Amino acid sequence: GLLLAAVALALLSAVELGVRERPGRRMLAANAAAQACLVFSHPVGGFYGLALCLGTVFADGWVYRRFRWSVILSYPAGWLTLGLWGPQLLRQADINQPRSWIPVPGWRDLATVNGAVAGDLERLGLFLGLAWAAAFLIGQRASGAAALPVERLRDEAARRRNRVVALGCTLVGVLPLVWIFSRWVPTNSLFVARYLIGVSVGWTILLAQLASMVLARYDAGPRSVRLPLKALVLAFALWNGAMLCGNTKPDRVGWLGFSDVAFGHEELPIVCQRALEYLPRNHYSPQAERYCYLLDWSAATTADNHFAAAGPEQKVLAGIGRNYGELYHHNIVDAGEFLRECPAFLIQDDPQTHWIANRLKREEYTITRLTPAGPMAALARRTYPMLLVERKAGKGEVAAPVNLSAAAR
Description:
The protein is an alpha/beta fold. It has helices at residues 2-19, 25-41, 45-63, 69-79, 86-94, 107-137, 156-172, 174-184, 199-218, 223-245, 255-261, 275-284, 297-300, 310-324, 335-341, 355-359, 405-408; strands spanning 270-272, 291-295, 332-334, 344-348, 365-369, 386-391. Helices cover 56% and strands 7% of the residues. A six-stranded mixed β-sheet has the order 3-2-1-4-6-5. Strand 1 (270-272), helix 12 and strand 2 form a beta-alpha-beta unit. The longest helix is centred in the first third of the chain and has 31 residues, at 107-137.
């Protein structure tokens, strides 16, 4: 959401720069600030900034027939603020070593990513394109408004519209730009659909322009043609709005906790093998202090660990544990320390990581697959099978307290 808002803000600033041929210093500074917001929102923000800069250069050549260097330089002026965070950015780039959790994209990924970024927009574009083609083929006479987008007019409204369309085209161009970078720098691939959500701003602009052309072309037609077409466009907009409003709400009622409690053994800690399972449970579960995340770098980078995010998760969670351990009950702990302190515990079964097979030797531990003893939460998602792990050598031992602050220290 923050990234999408930053893209929209930077787009608005770029449009306003184009309306005035000689913008003042305040407007140039505002554009630099908008670019700084964009690049600080997300690593992929720089690609959106570069696209808007290229769109501005193109639009200036189209409208003003020259380069406005003060406007062009206001873009990198915002990007250079990242220099304040140079060392931190290098550390952040190191998180993905030796391999990134984001796979290197192929041709198929480039061809299908729009389905995730703007699936309904694509279908709406197909519908509008067919409607425009039908209007053209049946010979509907276009009104004067239909020809405005292709004329190079000098009035402010036309300059604003033409620049918006040019910037919308370059925003869609972020897709191949990020795709090329992700193949060129595979350990820091960024080709993820949600990172490309700003492209939907460009799609929206282009489809709005196409819709205006379609409606203008049909505007000279009979009422029986105009009203159904406008109703279809409105229905499509409402449909997309309803889908957005129906987004899944955060788990604020503890469904995750109920689903795990159903396995019993409430006196034992629960080990999560993935950060995306540990972090929400630590926040939402009514028994948050039971959940643990184990730091085991050698296991995370072993060849048979097919969970691509294992390495990056280990580095991120280690940093969280060092700096904010008290917020997580000091339960982000070294795997060796945990196994020494806890003779018995529960663990989510995740065969993809191979951690259990590699670390818990059968001659040292008894591993029992549990069946839920109580009702499972009806809305629980991603509920892993639970295993009970008991150390054979210490049958008389008592499990360590759930709070593992001593082990964490």
